[in-house]
Specification:
The complex is a heterodimer of chains A (about 150) and B (about 400). Chain A has about 150 residues and is an alpha+beta fold. Chain A has four helices and eight strands; from the N terminus they run E-E-E-E-H-H-E-H-E-E-E-H. The chains are: A alpha+beta (about 150), B alpha/beta (about 400). Chains A and B meet through strand 3 and helix 4 of A and helix 6 of B.
């Protein structure tokens, strides 16, 4: 399938809100309350989408940071964009929405790192997300990953 | 420190102060505080006040490049705080739009305003409820609208009054209109006795509806100065109001200078954030004027001195001197002592002392004797009693109710 690398997308905001937390992008659709997260190169792609980069620009930028064939990176970017669109988190950008991405300030110090296709993590149980104790009831990765059952606290 | 805390229960403990410094200081000062705090504190067994500071601690440690086995869990707490605040504020925007659509003016207070205006992101300050101020004369209408939207008052007595006033409002026979007037009067009575009340909705969202900003200052035009200086604030696509930075600082400090079962140390972080973001916009002359006019110089002087001494906050020394020189009454000193000292669980002063202190402020320049003589009339007004002669019986019935509650005999 021919992919138009000139395509750009925009965050579907509102109702989508997002924030970067050091090494992770967290995204919420306020209509459904669903919570999503992206790490590693998923975070980089999300930030590039938010900055108005085209698919081609995203692939070039990721290729500069990770060791993988360009077509593998392109396939991974397109797959992630499909997932984000299925969840209504992004939409095609209006014509002329080229925000112009800044030069790459984070190219891993010039050294490329192994590429792992990004994965969109999704959590949908809003009540569970709201009441889960973020200190006592989570695993080492922290909220929203639940820890194993512990005996009741005294 | 220990002796000060026995008198002023709002003062953070030594450990809490270390945590505040680790979360708010910069560079080596923050790192030293973090090392000292983390060396002997177990985050699994923190007091509730310290627990609420962990997202801000996580932010500061990340900012300073600290890597620790706890980092991932602390960051998770930040993510959850961000998520909760986003969900709640979005719900709040919808609710405020309904209030505004009904012609009610709104202003967000406390956590809501602080998160929106002074914290770097939504993930740093956990909130347990959302605080909204309406004009005093619109308080009953706001409560009835809340009832219509399915919100329930947490206070059973208030809930009964709101529900019955809501029912009565819908009737149109002359007999029922008389009943409607009575129930509306009952609601008005509660409004006159308090400054805010809690509501909860089906999604367990807590809302604290205020008709006065501070419990200390009530009366027909008590908050005109706050409303006049209010600033616009956006929640998503909705615009409402918040107190100006100066007035927010006053609110945070006065509210923080009270003992609370959950250690109220968060006020320190709130005040530091206000000073950090809006330090050059703080109108110190206005703050001193408000302290004088509202008779709040004691809590403001004590808390601002604390911020200056323990948190290196840049507060002009002339302001601290001026606040310290404002003459105070016996009643103000007594009020400060009563509400800042630590109390036992369930130890509650009831409405009368609070109303006395409010009345004493309203009586302003008058003598204590004048305040004592006019207090019964003020109580008649607060309890919305038509005849003065009803007052002794009313107070007696309230005392019996209070005694029954204390003994666990229900309402």
């Amino acid at each position: 399938m021919e992919i138009d690398e000139r395509l750009r997308y925009a965050i579907n905001s509102p109702p989508v809100v997002h924030e970067s937390f050091v090494d992770e992008a967290v995204i919420v659709n306020l209509n459904s309350g669903a919570y999503y997260s992206l790490d590693k190169c998923g975070l980089a792609i999300w930030n590039l989408i938010a900055a108005g980069a085209s698919i081609g620009e995203m692939v070039d930028r990721i290729s500069g940071r990770y060791t993988a064939a360009r077509e593998d990176i392109l396939a991974a970017v397109v797959e992630l964009i499909s997932s984000l669109r299925r969840e209504d988190l992004i939409q095609p950008a209006a014509e002329g929405n080229n925000l112009g991405i800044a030069p790459d300030a984070n190219s891993n110090g010039g050294e490329k790192i192994p590429f792992e296709p990004p994965r969109l993590n999704k959590f949908t149980d809003v009540e569970d997300l709201l009441v889960l104790d973020p200190i006592h009831d989570v695993d080492a990765a922290g909220w929203p990953q639940k820890g194993s059952e512990r005996p009741p606290r005294t | 420190m220990t002796n000060s805390r026995a008198i002023e229960g709002w003062r953070p403990t030594d450990d809490q102060l270390l945590l505040l410094r680790a979360a708010l200081f910069d560079g080596d000062d923050a790192l030293a505080a973090w090392r000292a705090w983390s060396a002997h504190v177990d985050i699994e067994h923190l007091d509730a006040g310290s627990n609420r500071m962990l997202p801000l601690l996580s932010y500061n440690l990340d900012r300073l490049g600290v890597s620790d086995p706890l980092s991932a869990r602390l960051r998770g707490y930040r993510r959850q705080t961000w998520y909760k605040n986003q969900i709640w504020l979005s719900e709040m925007a919808r609710f405020l739009a309904v209030l505004q659509g009904a012609g009610l003016e709104t202003l967000v207070l406390k956590g809501t305003a602080l998160v929106l205006l002074f914290y770097p992101d939504f993930g740093l300050r956990p909130m347990t409820d959302l605080d909204v101020l309406v004009r005093r004369e619109q308080a009953c209408a706001a409560m009835l609208l809340l009832a219509e939207l399915g919100w329930k008052a947490n206070d059973d007595e208030m809930e009964r009054r709101v529900r019955s006033a809501d029912r009565a409002r819908r009737v149109d026979s002359s007999e029922d209109l008389a009943s409607a007037r009575m129930t509306s009067a009952a609601l008005e009575r509660r409004v006159r006795q308090g400054h805010a009340t809690d509501f909860v909705n089906s999604a367990k969202l807590q809302l604290d509806l205020h008709w006065y900003v501070l419990s200390e200052n009530r009366g027909p035009d008590a908050d005109d100065d706050f409303w006049t200086d209010a600033v616009p604030v956006r929640i998503g696509n909705f615009t409402t109001k918040a107190l100006s930075p100066t007035d927010t600082l006053v609110h945070v400090c006065v509210h923080g200078a009270k003992w609370c079962p959950v250690p109220p140390m968060r006020w320190v972080a709130d005040a530091i954030m206000i000073l950090r973001v809006a330090g050059d916009r703080i109108d110190w002359d206005r703050l001193v004027r408000l302290a004088r006019k509202r008779r709040l110089s004691i809590p403001l002087s004590r808390t601002l001195s604390y911020l200056s001494e323990e948190m290196n906050a840049s507060i002009p020394s002339a302001v601290l001197i001026e606040l310290g020189n404002i003459p105070t009454t016996w009643s103000e000193r007594m009020e400060y002592r009563m509400f800042s000292r630590p109390r036992k669980a369930g130890e509650d002063y009831g409405a009368l002392p609070v109303l006395w202190f409010v009345h004493r402020r309203l009586d302003n320049a008058r003598s204590g004797i004048h305040s004592i003589l006019t207090f019964p009339v003020y109580l008649q007004h607060c309890f919305a009693l038509e005849e003065f002669s009803e007052l002794p019986r009313f107070i007696f019935s309230k005392m019996v109710q209070r005694g029954r509650r204390r003994l666990g005999w229900g309402n």
